[in-house]
Amino acid sequence: MKKQIFVSLLVCLFSLVTFSQNLSNQYIKEQISEFKNDIRGPYKDIRWFCKDGSVRQPKDPCPQEIGPGVQHARYKDVVENIGKRNHVFLGQILAYTTNQEFWDSQNHNSRIKQYQLDKYLRSVDDGWILQKAQYYRGAVQVEDEEAWGVDFYKWLLTGDTSITKNFYLIRQSLNDIPHKGDDNVAQLMRSQSKVISDLFPQFMDLRVKIHGQPEFVDIEKVKQFKVKNASKLTATLNLKFDELLVTMANFYKPIDIQALPNKTSLVKNTPIGNLIKDFSIKNGIETKPANLVTESANLLLEIRKAVLVEKRAQARVQLLDASLKLEEIVFKNASQWQPITIMELLNKTYYIAMATVGAGYIELWEWNEIEPILKPKNATSLTLNELTTILQSARSVVEWSSSMVKATYEDIVDIYTGFESKSYGFIDDKIRSSVTLHLGKTVGDLGDFIATESSLTNKVFNISNQSSVRGLNPGYAFGELVVIDGSPEGVEVSSNKIYIFQKPPSDLKPVGGIATVAEGNLVSHVQLLARNLGIPNAAMSDDNLQNLKKINGQKVFYAVSNKGNVIMKLEKDMTAEEKGLFSKTVRNDAKIAVPVADIRLDVNSILNMRKVDAKDSGKLCGPKAANLGQLKKMFPDKVVEGVVIPFGIFKSHMNQPMPEQNVSYWKFLTNMFLEADKQRSNNISEAEVEKFQLKQLEILREAIKKMPIQASFISQLESEFVAVLGKKLGEVPVFLRSDTNMEDLKDFSGAGLNLTLFNVVAKDKIIQGIKDVWASPYTERSFKWRQKYLLNPENVFPSILVIPSVDVDYSGVMITTGINSGNSKDLTIAFSRGAGGAVDGQSAEAYELGVDGTTKLIAPARESDYNSLPTSGGTAKKSATFESSILNQQNMKEIRELAENVRVKMAKEVNAEYKGAYDVELGFKNNKLWLFQIRPFVENKKALSSGYLESITPKIDKNKVVILSKKI
After folding, report:
1. Does the structure show a pLDDT above 50 at 18?
2. Would you put residue 755 in left (φ > 0), alpha (ψ -120 to 50) or beta?
């Protein structure tokens, strides 16, 4: 009996574990295939759902004494299971869902996004999961869905939080969620279709479609049905079909501008109501595209502001619906507005940019930062430099707008793409159906004009809209072009290839060259490595990426000049000079030797961070610990306490016998390098040598992770935690930061190549974490970067910096030079919410702080998740919205003051000869500034001084005057 009970418990436990696991993408894909071929699709049957909670048969409606119910389908059991296990909700019926469930705020509003994505998939895949169920009568009742939508928005828009934080998402959802109530035209359309189906039963499928899933394309379907069945239709039926088509055309006709005041009746006689009335009077019969775009853009922006002031939910819905119609006016007329002069082109750029703000593609605070630059000037001419500034800002609006769409929907698209490849087109469809599409085209036209005037032209094959391509840092490369349109995760990169990414992976291995859609984060580890190592790096538009797909797999030459113009050509088109850049002699000159003569491997005691400073870098420990110790002396109230595990402790552990190898860990490592040299001398290919090395390093890495830790070291660690950090080992959350002698060298930064562990608390996890950090320099990525650029990569020694966690509100990087401006007295900063901000390629909030006191927004944050550091250890994900900036004015002031102090004190106390910039990692907690790291900001001097790159860099007269009446 006991055995049976035990077995039953095991079965129950196994069932619970199994149930908690996600279902595989393959399983969901198979279910979707079955739904497509099922006349009921994802639905099981149809029932009445009564107000008292009872569920009744389809022919047994809710009794009058209970009150009216709603009739719709129930989901198949497998659909409900997918929802519970994977939080994936297929074929959602609104009337079957509570407001809170559908808004799904605890999951990034996943369900409302899934509903929108579902609608898209149905439109591009013949109904998708409803391919055969589109005509499943009664599954979805449009009247009930509309009534639900009205109630949903009344609930959602009561109060300011949702609309303030999620303006773009809510406004977009109104395109997909029925909510307008049952107006007379819609009701007439449904009743006419019902009469026809009653008289002619073959029309039933289309009647069900018009009732349950009405779309503009239904007009064409009705016309085709009428033609196909012409021989069977009576005169009466023909007349009824004609009446239905007139009603449908009326239902789907473009907006009547003069009707806008009636459509926004709840704001009549309010300031925004008066603006709408004036707009309708002025533009009711307007036909000039320029006037319609200008006036509509202005009203779009005013409505966005008014929605935040208006408190009545239903009035907000009316304003948002009007906003959608105004965007439609801009969208339809923008392509017909053909500027003749540069002044008209600047005006068009400004007003379409304004429309993107009104439509929610960028935030109001972002517009306030950039609008003064874009606003048409009361001038007859501008310099080339002034025009370029306008172009850069306009291009930013395009990128920020596209990034808003991606940030809003990327999480759910990534999930759905795992089982439905067509999902990947959703974001592109969103962008192309918005005013952002026309802004991109207009900015491209402006870019082409300025490129011609300045001679700063790109030569990227013969693709269109080349002005959207711009260099981020100089360099040149030759290799196979690889275009990655989807997720970069899992892509195996090669150091002799050139990659075009939508977004690069944060742990990018060595590549020959790189370009990304949009600029990305200027100070991420990937960008800093590219800049440091002379890897050509450029930004481009999504259209540019799509055009380059036809070159995918071919060998190309790629160069970015010091001014940012870009060349990309096929191998056959390379000049002799360009081919000469890749001779073996030239490329070998680029390698760097790591100094090891002064390294102190005899120091075998844990150090208080206060006892080390910059002069100890590369001797006792790596530069992170040494430089943070230096900062502790210079800014004691801005730097936490810390302990340092020096090189010597690592080496003493590596001198231990390595299991199953009959040599020490260290000897195993040195033997591997000796064998690699021997293989090279025997003319074994470098690819085979590397394969051998990576295999040996994998063995070593796994062995280090299991390495026994010396008891004396643990005892020291326990003592130092109490003495320095004030608590016992296991009671204070800490960061374990890898800190090797091969970082922050004069010509090699090594940023982000090795492991940092966030917020570790438990003693056993800290001990294991130390071993994991020691093993991290031997990962494939870290080894390949060192191997490619260092002469003696075998001499890597990791120390570890241990500092208490600071659960910062936001964190980031300050570079004490203007990366974009080229002015060494400017600052470049980038911040993200939470810990670890900006360094891992997050879409960060970036600024250029001018020496003249100006502040220029380079990019706003577009990262919907961020890391917080709970006291229990590990990281927790929190959600972010973008309605306000991350940094405030006081933060900016402190950063400026810090930069000045860093420049002065580092020169005075560390290295008076160093004239370069610094890369500083910092964060804010309750507006208090904390410093976490400082290193030299290393640029590639060979790239900057390259004769070839200088030869392709045009000489630009920034003060050249351009008359704005000049024709384009």
Report:
1. no
2. beta
